[in-house]
Write a structure and sequence with these properties.
single chain, 269 residues, alpha+beta, Cathepsin D, subunit A, domain 1, 2 domains, six-stranded mixed β-barrel, 7 helices
Length: 269
């Protein structure tokens, strides 16, 4: 946006404060970070105050001021909001922040172009904030749909355990080609820690040896067992499978622990 000859610092502060609120909220949504509203507000105020301070530096071109406002002030804003640890996380979050800044700015320009009656209010703070809110709502809706599509890749698995039914979060992996070499049935892979609650199935007649090629090393063998019944629950309902073979992985199938089982597509709903 072109800067007018007369700059009202209070308007600049309010504009940056609100836009930073939108940007930090969108960044928190896409990262799944639990940033509190006070933290987001503190980060937004830091960004707005920092930008206004840089804008008031005499003898520096506007382009340099924008660069200073984007980089050091942006880093400080992220640090205050998300309490980042290390430069890798800081730069990763900065990437999302400026991606949304670019998208939000593009949406504001697009909306202005589609609404000719707004051109007479080109520099109106209220109009810019209103269009910013519309852009924020569009981006937030897109993030929600994206997260929903990701959640569709997960489901809940219920298996009878040693004391009670065990509920497991499973990733549906369409590329999982693990098969039992005898029956040629698809094989699910489960964390050893969760399997410790399912030892009722550790009987000789249920025992399986399953070769694999992609979990941790090029070739290896997994111990597995056949369970009589497994219920899979998803967004579209639930389905019961019988005589399911489960391989026990000595470790975590998810590095972050966000799921405990890798489920072949054939055993999903």
């Amino acid at each position: 946006m072109q800067v007018p000859n007369t700059v009202y610092i209070d308007s600049v502060f309010l504009l940056n404060l609100v836009m930073d609120l939108y940007l930090l909220k969108l960044t928190a949504k896409v990262l799944g970070k639990t940033a509190t509203y006070p933290a987001i507000l503190a980060g937004s105020m830091t960004g707005a105050l920092g930008y206004c301070t840089v804008l008031c530096i005499p003898g520096v071109s506007y382009g340099v001021k924008v660069l200073l406002g984007m980089l050091p002030v942006g880093m400080l804003m992220i640090k205050v909001t998300f309490h980042t640890k290390g430069f890798a996380e800081l730069f990763r979050i900065m990437g999302y922040l400026y991606f949304f800044s670019f998208v939000l700015g593009g949406l504001i320009i697009f909306l202005k172009g589609k609404m000719p009656f707004l051109r007479q209010y080109e520099d109106s703070l209220r109009v810019v904030l209103l269009l910013g809110f519309v852009g924020y709502a569009v981006c937030a809706g897109g993030i929600a749909r994206w997260k929903q599509s990701r959640n569709n890749c997960f489901c809940t698995v219920m298996i009878a355990g040693d004391e009670k039914p065990v509920e497991i979060r499973a990733l549906i992996d369409t590329g999982n080609g693990l098969l039992d070499p005898i029956s040629h049935k698809p094989v699910a892979v489960l964390d050893e820690e969760v399997w410790n609650s399912l030892k009722r199935w550790m009987r000789p007649e249920k025992y399986k040896i399953i070769p694999y090629h992609s979990i941790g090393k090029e070739k290896g063998l997994l111990e597995g067992y056949e369970v009589d019944e497994m219920v899979v629950k998803g967004s579209t309902g639930k389905k019961q499978f019988e005589k399911v073979i489960i391989a026990v992985f000595k470790g975590k199938v998810s590095g972050k622990g966000s799921y405990q089982m890798i489920l072949p597509f054939q055993l999903s709903i």
